[in-house]
Design goal:
Layout lengths: L7 H11 L4 E8 L8 E5 H19 L6 E5 L4 H13 L2 E3 L21 E4 L11 E3 L18 E2 H4 L18 E5 L2 E4 H4 L8 E4 L4 H13 L3 E7 L3 H10 L4 E2 L1
Parallel strand pairs: 1-11, 3-4, 3-5, 4-8, 5-6, 6-7, 10-11, 10-12
Antiparallel strand pairs: 1-2, 8-9
Helix pairs in contact: 1-2, 2-3
């Protein structure tokens, strides 16, 4: 088994160094939405470029750093992966709200004080006084298709203006919170699992926290993810998984 890095930021640097051009996440979209029919594939190099831009936006424009809580109100998606990695690059904590986790039963009590930043694809999502980054999921979007919350950041319009290289102001310790989901915190030292093999792994999960944990585990083992959004027919799905060289489902 091959493993890369000790934390999310180290992991990404290791992937770029070891094999920058190999696909690391491939997404098929069968949702009833404007993104239906998209197939998007990102190599380690391209993923790192998106992460750097998002991390620079967080750090330079929103003063995010170690300890900053960023609510990631997004579905499993390639954009969700780079935003999570960007939060971890600045040393912040990704908070996945209950509506994105498939939480069974009564939702857990929110953390006192709420998030410091909200990253969402829903312009009507509650955010209290936190600044908002509005994400448009469509691959070729150059601006949000609807209204942006007052004072918010239109990611599709503004992300491209940020640099392709990122240097953090500070780095988190292994005890700092990295992921808050299902009512529990996971520290940086416990975030990246080390029990996966270097597979091409398919998932159709709608749980954002589960998607992020799986992606980190697979990437740490030098593997890659194929994500299905929506519900393709069994025949179409089987053909895709064969064409993508999927070795297991997660």
């Amino acid at each position: 088994m091959s493993t890369l890095g000790t934390g999310p930021a180290d992991l990404l640097r290791g992937l770029v160094s070891s094999d920058p051009g190999r696909p690391r996440i491939t997404v098929y979209d069968d949702t009833d939405s404007p993104t239906r029919g998209e197939r998007i594939e990102l190599s380690a190099r391209v993923l790192a470029n998106w992460v750097a831009k998002a991390a620079n936006l967080l750090q330079d424009d929103l003063d995010a750093g170690v300890g900053t809580v960023v609510r990631l109100d997004l579905p499993p998606h390639w954009r969700t992966l780079y935003w999570a990695l960007a939060v971890w690059s600045v040393g912040g904590c990704v908070e996945v709200p209950p509506n994105r986790t498939g939480y069974a039963g009564s939702p857990p009590e929110p953390a006192p004080g709420g998030p410091d930043v909200v990253v969402t694809d829903d312009p009507g999502a509650p955010h209290a006084e936190a600044p908002v980054v509005l994400v448009t999921l469509a691959a070729l979007a150059r601006a949000a298709s609807g209204p942006v919350p007052m004072g918010g950041v239109d990611e599709a319009r503004e992300l491209a203006t940020h640099g392709d290289e990122f240097e953090p102001w500070d780095t988190p310790t292994g005890d700092d919170p990295a992921l808050r989901a299902h009512g529990e915190d996971t520290a940086y030292g416990e975030l990246v699992a080390r029990d996966a093999t270097a597979d091409r792994v398919h998932t159709a999960t709608t749980d954002t926290a589960a998607f992020l944990r799986l992606a980190l585990s697979v990437l740490a083992a030098d593997g890659s993810i194929v994500l299905s959004r929506g519900e393709p027919s069994p025949d179409i799905l089987a053909a895709r998984l064969e064409a993508e060289g999927v070795t297991r489902s997660g």
